[in-house]
Design a protein that fits this description.
This protein is an alpha/beta fold and 301 residues long. The chain has a single domain, classed as Arginase, Chain A (3-Layer(aba) Sandwich), CATH 3.40.800.20. Helix content is 44%, strand content 12%. The chain is built from ten helices and eight strands. The protein has an eight-stranded parallel sheet with strand order 2-1-3-8-7-4-5-6, sandwiched between helices. Strand 7, helix 9 and strand 8 form a beta-alpha-beta unit. Helix 1 crosses helix 10, helix 5 crosses helix 6 and helix 8 runs parallel beside helix 9. The longest helix has 24 residues. The termini are close together. Keywords: Hydrolase. It comes from Sphingobacterium bovistauri. This is Histone deacetylase. Pfam families: Hist_deacetyl. Belongs to the histone deacetylase family.
C-alpha cells in the first residue's frame, strides 16, 4: 500500500507573505483524493519528532535553541521565518513524517511526505525557510537502526541541497547528489559528493540526458540500498525563482527516470516535495501530482 505522510500542521499560515507557497501542502492531498489517485487510508499522520531524533543530523546546541525559541537574530534572518512554537512543531512533524515514510518505503518500495525536502538546513544552521533537514534526519535514523547501510540522496530541486551536503560531508554511508541551477540560491554552495551545475535556460532534452547519464553511473558505483528523493518542481519554466526551462512533461520524465532506476535495482525510495514557486498554483500542483502518479504507475499500486 502506498503510504503518504500528511498533517494539518504543515499548512500553518506562518505569515501573510508566505501563505501562498504553503498552500500546496494543503492542496496536494486534496487533489490526490479528488482525482481518485489515492484513498484516505493511504495517508498517515506523523507525530512530533523528539529532541534526540532531531539531533541525529543537527547539533544539540542548535536544536536546543530552536526548541527554546532562543535562536540568534542573525540566524532567524538567515532562516527567513519569524520563529514560533507552531513553526517548530511543523518542522518536527515533517521530520517524523519523513522517518515514518522511509520505514514504509522499506515495506512497500516507495512512500511520500506531502511536505519536506528541507535541504537548506545544515548541521548547525537553518537557511532558506528550512529549520531542520527532514531527509538527513531520516537517513541518520535508518543508519542508526541498521535499516540501511548505503544511502543515496537524489536532490533535483533547482537549488543545491547545501544543508544536506554540509551534514554528510565525508560520511561514507551517505552519498549526496545534487543537480541544480549554477547561478541560483545558495550563492555560497557546499560540496556534495556529486554536484551537477546547470546553466540558466536549460530545457528538457539536455536536462534529461544529463540526469539519465548520472543516474546510471550512481546506481552502479554507489550501490545504494535506500534512496531519498528531493522532488522539487522549481525546475519548471514557469517557476519565478528557478532559471531553468523544463516543461511539465520534462519534470514528469525526470520523476520517471528516478523511480524506474529504483525499481530496476530494487531500491526503496522516500520522496519529499521540495520547492515550487510558479505564479499559478495549478502549475505547481500539476507537477507534484504527476510525481505521485508516476510512482504509482511504476510500482504497480
Amino acid at each position: 500500500m502506498l503510504k503518504i505522510a500528511h498533517h494539518t500542521a504543515y499548512i500553518h499560515p506562518l505569515r501573510e507573505g508566505h501563505r501562498f507557497p504553503m498552500l500546496k501542502y494543503e492542496l496536494i492531498p486534496e487533489q490526490l483524493l479528488y482525482e481518485g489517485i489515492v484513498k484516505r487510508e493511504n495517508f498517515f499522520k506523523p507525530d512530533l519528532a523528539d529532541f534526540d531524533t532531531c539531533c541525529l543530523a543537527h547539533s544539540k546546541d542548535y536544536v536546543q535553541h530552536l526548541f527554546a525559541l532562543t535562536v540568534d537574530p542573525k540566524m532567524v534572518r538567515r532562516i527567513g521565518f519569524p520563529l514560533s512554537e507552531s513553526l517548530i512543531d511543523r518542522e518536527r512533524y515533517i521530520l517524523d513524517g519523513t522517518i515514518q515514510a522511509a520505514k514504509f518505503a522499506l515495506e512497500f518500495s516507495v512512500s511520500f511526505n506531502t511536505a519536506g525536502g528541507t535541504h537548506h538546513a545544515g548541521y548547525d544552521y537553518g537557511e532558506g525557510f528550512c529549520l531542520m533537514n527532514d531527509q538527513a534526519v531520516a537517513a541518520q535514523y535508518l543508519l542508526k537502526h541498521r535499516l540501511a547501510k548505503k544511502i543515496l540522496i537524489i536532490d533535483l530541486d533547482v537549488h543545491q541541497g547545501n544543508g544536506t551536503a554540509h551534514i554528510f560531508l565525508d560520511n561514507p554511508n551517505v552519498f549526496t547528489f545534487s543537480m541544480h541551477s549554477a547561478k541560483n540560491f545558495p550563492f555560497l554552495k557546499e560540496k556534495s559528493d556529486l554536484d551537477v551545475e546547470l546553466q540558466d535556460g536549460m530545457e528538457d532534452e539536455e536536462y534529461l540526458t544529463l540526469l539519465k547519464r548520472h543516474l546510471e553511473m550512481l546506481f552502479i558505483t554507489v550501490k545504494p540500498d535506500f534512496v531519498f528523493y528531493q522532488a522539487g518542481v522549481d525546475i519548471l519554466s514557469t517557476d519565478k525563482l528557478g532559471k531553468l526551462k523544463v516543461s511539465k512533461g520534462g519534470c514528469k520524465m525526470r520523476d520517471y527516470l528516478v523511480f524506474k532506476k529504483c525499481k530496476e535495482f530494487g531500491v526503496p525510495i522516500q520522496v519529499s516535495m521540495g520547492g515550487g514557486y510558479s505564479a499559478d498554483i495549478k502549475d505547481i500542483l500539476d507537477a507534484h501530482i504527476a510525481t505521485y502518479k508516476t510512482a504509482i504507475d511504476i510500482f504497480d499500486f
